[in-house]
UniProtKB/TrEMBL annotation:
Compartments in which it is found: Cell membrane; Membrane
Protein's name according to its UniProt entry: Solute carrier family 41 member
Any Gene Ontology CC annotation: plasma membrane
Signal peptide segment: 1-22
GO BP of this protein: metal ion transport
Length: 546
């Protein structure tokens, strides 16, 4: 065994330190043995090549701290490692933990953060608004179109005969949104933290995440149909077998096709944002929902009507669709398991999306019961807008906070102002970028919903503007929904990070599902009260509700 000369200076310093502090020699002897007994290969470069042009690299960069008795992974420079994997380092890195030399120049240099790791692009409030505004408006127009489409297809034969499809609509739309936004949030974080710099890293991460997404879409599509069947059976007391098969085929087919198409589109948006120097956190999640709701709802309506036509004459078509899509599950598992990040999510990524699907299904049950009253059926065009806009805005904030935590803190560590009890005022009042973005997102609700309400009335062919009372109550309900979601997001994401869970995979499903539940509930509550008020006003001022 032989050592290169670059070990001489640290060894000499360590020896002097042990002579000056003999009482700690026994404890640090073990540290010394663990830190410096390194076997050097025979093909290591000659000592004369150091320190000028050496490119030698070693991988055992993490060790367990023996000074504090904990097993927390630390980097070779003494800092906590942001991931539980060895970091590749060169011989220029200091090998001793900084805690051994708290007062030396080594500690000052070793505690500095790596400066070559790319971070999110710097942005002002103006640039933030400009980056968010266009995707936000596109997403809003997509949800407006979805609402108009839902208002149109509610009179189709399949919707009249199989009313459980109304329960399936929020569940499938919410599931699609959850999968798209978690994919967008994960890839945005990977781009901003420099994990997609090489071609191999980029494509391995993309293929693994798309395979995981297809697996989740297939499983959740099946579960969504079963939940819709259960809730429909509890409400009606009966459920024919052919309706069950129709719900399963429609949900599986819609989830699979839309997940594949929008996943590919999402990858293109994120990589394009990186090339243009735009923060993907501001663009990716709203673009994921821009026309996703419209495409998903159109495919859901068309496939359900198509399968309904085959249900009595060619029922084997429905069984064949279910069988083919379910048989692809082992393929997605095999591909996703080859990437470490998605391999972990194969075991841990199911809880949030399944819980979110159940929450969205409850919102769908509320929607079904609301539209069953003829006087309240007019809320259908507004339900996707209310739910979609709230989910889009909170997903932007969730992705931004998650990226900041990944880039700044190690899992389990939180900012000082989040270490104690949660204070709602900190969400909107502060000097940080996330505080500013929370205020910007809340401010966008008022002009955004005004534009979307007007767009709905124009697309419906209405010749009169919506009543002032309806507009006020709709915007007020939307403000309550979005502000509540932003507060919950701030608390939930830091709580998940403290528990060492990835917010990119856990937070957005809960938040968008709560957005669906809050939006549908508030809309049904306000519209039902509004109908009573405007019925009285109609008799006096000849005003209409919608």
């Amino acid at each position: 065994m032989r050592y290169t000369n670059n070990f001489a200076l640290p060894c000499l310093i360590f020896s002097v330190y042990c002579l000056v502090n003999p009482q700690n020699h026994g404890l640090q002897k073990q540290t010394f043995s663990n830190m410096f007994v390194l076997e050097v290969e025979d093909n290591i470069a000659a000592p004369s090549q150091f320190p000028g042009n050496t490119e030698q690299q070693h991988t055992p960069a993490t060790s367990h701290s023996h000074l504090n008795g904990s097993s927390t992974p630390v980097r070779s420079n003494g800092n906590l490692s942001s991931i539980n994997k060895p970091r590749v380092y060169t011989e220029r890195d200091y090998l001793l933990p900084s805690m051994l030399y708290r007062s030396s120049s080594l500690s000052r240099s070793s505690t500095e953060k790596d400066t070559n790791v790319p971070g999110p692009p710097s942005e002002t409030i103006c640039s933030m608004v400009l980056q968010i505004l266009l995707p936000f408006l596109l997403a809003g127009l997509g949800t407006v179109s979805a609402g108009i489409l839902l208002d149109f297809v509610q009179n189709w034969e399949v919707f009249l005969e199989v009313s459980e499809i109304f329960i399936l609509v929020p569940a499938v739309l919410g599931m699609k949104g959850n999968l798209e936004m978690t994919l967008a949030s994960r890839l945005s974080t990977a781009v901003n933290t420099g994990k997609m710099e090489t071609t191999r890293e980029k494509w391995t991460l993309i293929v693994g995440n798309l395979s995981l997404k297809q697996l989740q879409a297939t499983v959740l599509g099946l579960l969504a149909s079963l939940v819709a069947m259960l809730l429909g059976w509890m409400a009606e007391g009966t459920m024919p077998l052919n309706h069950i098969i129709l719900l399963c085929s429609t949900s599986l087919f819609t989830a699979f096709i839309t997940s594949l198409l929008q996943g590919i589109l999402m990858v293109g948006v994120i990589m394009g944002s990186k090339r243009l120097g735009i923060n993907p956190d501001n663009v990716a999640t709203p673009m994921a929902a821009s026309f996703g709701d419209l495409i998903t709802l159109a495919l859901l309506a068309c496939s359900s009507q198509w399968f309904y036509c085959f249900m009595d004459t060619y029922p084997y078509v429905l069984y064949l669709v279910d069988l083919v899509l379910l048989c692809l599950i082992p393929l997605w598992i095999n591909i996703a398991s080859k990437h470490p990040a998605t391999h972990i999510l194969l075991r841990t990524g199911w809880e949030p999306v399944i819980t979110a699907m159940v929450i969205s299904s409850v919102g769908g049950l509320i929607l079904e019961k609301t539209v069953s009253y003829p006087n309240l059926a007019g809320i259908l065009p507004y339900a996707p807008v209310m739910n979609g806009i709230g989910g889009n805005l909170v997903s932007i904030q969730s992705s931004r906070i998650s990226t900041n935590l990944h880039f700044t803190f190690s899992p389990g560590e939180v900012p000082v102002d989040r270490a104690g009890c949660f204070n709602p005022c900190r969400t909107f009042f502060g000097s940080g970028a996330n505080h500013r973005s929370a205020k910007v997102l809340l401010f966008l609700v008022i002009p955004g919903q005004l534009i979307f309400i007007l767009a709905i009335h124009l697309m419906k062919g209405a010749h009169t503007l919506p009543s002032a009372l309806f507009t006020f109550l709709f915007i007020f309900a939307s403000l309550i929904q979005v502000s509540s979601l932003l507060l919950i997001a701030d608390c939930l994401i830091h709580l998940l990070w403290r528990k060492q869970k990835d917010p990119d995979s856990y937070a957005i499903p809960y938040l968008t599902a709560l957005g669906d539940l809050f939006g549908t509930s508030l809309l049904a509550l306000f519209i039902s009260r509004l109908f009573v008020c405007e019925t009285f006003l109609y008799l006096i001022f000849d005003m209409g509700v919608f």
